[in-house]
Amino acid sequence: MKKIDLVIAGVGGQGNLLLAKLLSLVALEEGWDVKRSEIKGLAQRGGSVLSQVRMGEKIWSPLIQLGSADFLLGLDPVEALRNFQFLSPEGKALVSSNFAPNPIKFSEEEVLEKARSLKFLLIPALDLAKKVGSPQSANIVILGALSNFLPFSLSTFEKIMKENLKRLQEENLKAFALGREEIQRIS
What we know:
Elements: E1 4-11, H1 16-29, E2 33-39, E3 48-56, E4 69-74, H2 77-82, E5 87-96, H3 108-117, E6 121-123, H4 125-131, H5 138-147, H6 154-164, H7 169-186
Helix pairs in contact: 1-6, 4-5, 4-7, 5-7
């Protein structure tokens, strides 16, 4: 069993904490030790939210050192760029290409161009979630994309989602599948 470190960057209201919880529960279900840390700040709609999930045989600390994360999950491209320093040189960044509403105006094309230059795998998470009728499932699209890289069974992901996502369950399962398909298509 190896160790996997994940950083999840987004803004309040995007489901960052739920995504961290689901990942933790999947790993626990498969017998891994898990530690999780969350920095919420002003996370009520629009503030930065950063979660760190560490999983492995035995994990002592929930905090991930800069430059050592195996995965950076970005629910917003600006937040992913802000937290890029956590990603190891060999790590993968799976980042939504859709922007969260933000009072600070960024050049979206410049942000996406920078993300592409850093080899981020850009996923139209919100667009895919809208296809299944549930825009709030964009975080589950990212979970589906990530599942391609993790050593956990699909049945465990489905079990955990069914147990913890009572509302919009069918839409979330479809969003998960679309995320899996999209990352296979682009990587």
